[in-house]
Amino acid sequence: MTNLANGNTALAARDLRHVWHPCTQMHDHDPTGSGSVPMLPIVRGDGAWLVDANGKRYLDGISSWWTNLFGHANPRIAAALAEQARTLEHVIFAGFTHEPAIALAEELTRITPPGLDRVFYADNGSAAIEVALKMSFHYWLNQGHGEKTRFIALTGSYHGETLGALSVSDVALYRKTYAPLLLTPFLAPSADTWQAEPGESPEQVAMRALAALRVLLEQHAHETCAVIVEPLVQCAGGMRMYHPAYLSGLRALCDEFAVHFIADEIAVGFGRTGTLFACEQAPAASGRGGGVSPDFMCLSKGLTGGFLPLSAVLTSEAIYQAFYAEYAAGKAFLHSHSYTGNPLACRVALETLAIFRDEPVLERNRHLAVHLGRRLEALRDHPHVADVRQTGMIAAVELVADKASRRPFPAEQRRGLRVYLHGLEHGVLLRPLGDVIYFMPPYVVSAAEIDLLVDTAIAGIERAVSH
Q: What pLDDT digit, counting tens, does each position of 5-64 carry?
């Protein structure tokens, strides 16, 4: 029997007395008012599953905000963490170093696209974006181009919620309130295939978006530091997806107009899209696979397999050299975090990357992705589903009030929340983005567990749109 003092109800009550949760209207959790969303205390993890204080199990269909790759409480990663904790937990990273950070930098420069030879550590995804933005601006300043102070982002983009990262985001839900505090980016049209004209292919959408970006660069390249994009999938913006040809065209335009290309692979890196990094899928000029190398690549989330906060910004030797000078020149990159290069996180990241080396992760993911896509086909003809889209191990279903016109449900009806609550009731964690139901499970998920995810989502969708 559950110990009532440590059960869901008691722990939730203690939580609600003091804790303020992220991306949450806390009133939703108020059990004494109209709050209808449970606060669930999780006491342990087991592979793709989470277990609450009452012993109920939940299949983690979203990898706990897209971080978990190889399962909760993965014994191999946990053992590496424990070993490191007995040796060195942390040390200042200015003037000091340690083997886990060195080895991780060596491995990251080995596995990322060519030319990314320098690694700067931070401690979360938003911080990585801040680093890349500041580093790009500071590079141009050091090169005598202080007039470059602006950035180009894509419509519908999301890069984080610190002020710099939010400045280059275009999701009104997050940005609108803080707009007076933010930088104003130039917005280029996304290559999102959802925006396709009748008869237009995904690649044609990408070419149209690149043509618009060219016009923007012709007008503003002289004052632009960088273009920042989420390669292939704009995740928090509604799991919008686009053709990899856009990345090849973007690289060419950035070279032509002398602006940097920042690739935010925080959510899409480490196998989510079918390749280790999404940038690898960009076609070469010949039309065959080639991949592109951005000027900055931002990594986090899956970097540590979901165990600890860590991020990294990779860049080129040429950019590094623009900061390398005598102290009196004042060109150093003065940016730091207390936990920069934390040994525990670096050691865990090394073990996560070792699993990619030792096991056929990407091959298995491709088989699982095919199964997931096959199961979701049943929703394509649903009268309230406007789109079913997928890139690798990321899939999304767009709910609408009217399929023909794509008219959305009124936001206040919170149809996606109904799917979430149905999922919890049936032991599945699905946390929609508005009315976009998405799937991003851990890589240890089985085909049978994917069936459970999809079956639960389908039933939840039926329930959500029934009245």
A: 789 999 999 999 999 999 999 999 998 866 689 999 999 999 999 999 999 999 999 999
Residue-wise pLDDT tens digits, 183-209: 999 999 999 999 999 999 999 999 999
pTM comes to: 0.96
Instruction: Record the tokens describing residue 228, joined without a space.
Output: 């920042």
Q: Are 313 and 134 in contact (CB under 8 A)?
A: no
3-class state of residue 250 by DSSP: helix
Q: Where are the domains of the chain?
A: 40-73+361-465, 78-358
CATH code given to domain 78-358: 3.40.640.10
Binding residues for pyridoxal 5'-phosphate: 125-126, 264, 337-338
Q: Residues annotated as binding site for substrate?
A: 65, 158, 301, 336, 431
Common-topology check for domains 40-73+361-465 and 78-358: no
Q: What are phi and psi of 396, to 5 degrees?
A: -145, 150
Q: Which residues are annotated as a binding site?
A: 65, 125-126, 158, 264, 301, 336-338, 431
* DSSP-derived 3-state class of residue 290: coil
How far, in Å, CA of 292 to CA of 232, rounded?
13
Neighbours of 281 (CB within 10 A): 22
Name the fold adopted by 40-73+361-465. Aspartate Aminotransferase, domain 1 (3.90.1150)
- d(Cα 280, Cα 263) in Å, to the nearest integer? 12
How far is it, in rounded angstroms, from Cα 43 to Cα 46?
10
